[in-house]
Design brief:
By secondary structure, this protein is an all-alpha fold. It has one domain. 60% of the residues lie in helices and 0% in strands. Helix 1 packs antiparallel against helix 2.
Length: 52
């Protein structure tokens, strides 16, 4: 796996909107939990999926 921070990535407005919606949905899905473990991993996975 490559470190995406080391890459020059251009992301279209459409893709940024899709990422934003997916991240918001992931956060909503865990909102009811007392301790929403794994949300950071979920967000990282979403971003990796969308930019690869």
């Amino acid at each position: 796996m490559t470190d995406i921070a080391d890459e020059n990535v251009n992301i279209t407005k459409t893709k940024r909107e899709r990422i934003r919606e997916r991240v918001l949905q992931a956060e909503k899905d865990k909102l009811h939990l007392d301790n929403p473990r794994g949300i950071i991993n979920d967000v990282e996975d979403i971003i990796r999926e969308e930019i690869n």
